[in-house]
Amino acid sequence: MTQTIVETAPAKINLALHVRARRADGYHELETLFAFLQDGDELRFTPGAPTFEIEGPFAAALSGEGDNLVLRAARGFAEAFGLASEGAWVLEKNLPVASGIGGGSADAAAALRLLARVRGVALDDPRLFAVADALGSDVPACLLGRAALGTGRGEKLEPLGDLGAIPVLLVNPGIAVSTGPVFKAWDGVDRGPIPAGTTIDRARAGRNDLEAPARTIAPGIGDVLDRLAATGPVLARMSGSGATCFALYENDEQRSAAANTIRTAQPGWWCLESRLA
Ligand code: C5P
Q1: Is the distance from CB of 84 to CB of 45 less than 8 angstroms?
Q2: What CATH architecture is 167-275?
Q3: Spatial separation of the C-alpha atoms in residues 101 and 244, rounded to whole Å
Q4: Sheet of strand 167-172: strand arrangement
Q5: What ipTM was predicted for this assembly?
Q6: Average pLDDT over every residue of 17-40
Q7: Domain spans of the chain, in order of start
Q8: Which residue's CA is the nearest one to ligand 1's atom 20?
Q9: How far is the CA of 64 from the centre of ligand 1 (A)?
Q10: pLDDT, tens digit, for every residue of 210-219?
Q11: Residue nearest to atom 9 of ligand 1 (CA)
Q12: Ligand 1 midpoint to CA 7 (Å)
């Protein structure tokens, strides 16, 4: 009997993202506070003949893409562990694509966690993290899947204490933004480290240094941030290289009221009501 295995790929947000330096290898030295939500994409795997299907609300945005990160993750896993990883994959794409909340990185990490489970590999196996690292800067953080301070390209991780199920609203104005050009548009000014303190205090005292360059590429981000700020959140900020922005609230009622206000004003925008994982 073949069994289908399911793994969620939670959305990632950057509570703060400080760009400290341009590196000779084309990447940037970062300091970032990663956090994860209770909602995300879903990945299903059935051992057997190799197929790959994408379904869900954002499937169309990915359909033209040749080599999905899920399949690259499966190949990386097979090479690193000498274990076959063939099977039928179904990716339910619930999160907008190229939007600063993990996306392909979260899916790749979910594929690695799923295959590790199937093949009896420990989730903290350093070889699993090496595969993740080779797939992308955010994949190790997504593999860890819990709040962490990321340094280097974002791949050096230091787990942080549990943040609790803080209510979160995600808003995307329907603009896809590529990460590379946003980093390229950064002005090269080091504005300093994330201050010390509790994680939420650090987040509030921090910044997203990619916000200004992302806004030059996608000015609509400013409108999202203004609308979120007007709903009285604990914190409102762009995530990653954008264009998705998030807001944290004191309670679910405030978050839902904010979501309703934004949905009414901008019915075409994507809004997700969730909580920190
Ligand atoms: O690592 P990943 O392939 O996800 O990164 C995508 C692009 O984002 C890189 O090619 C690079 O242009 C940029 N990037 C960067 N510095 C980082 C992470 C990503 O410049 N720390």
Answers
A1: no
A2: 2-Layer Sandwich (3.30)
A3: 7
A4: 235-238, 245-248, 167-172, 270-275
A5: 0.98
A6: 98
A7: 5-159, 167-275
A8: 27
A9: 22
A10: 999 999 999 9
A11: 180
A12: 26
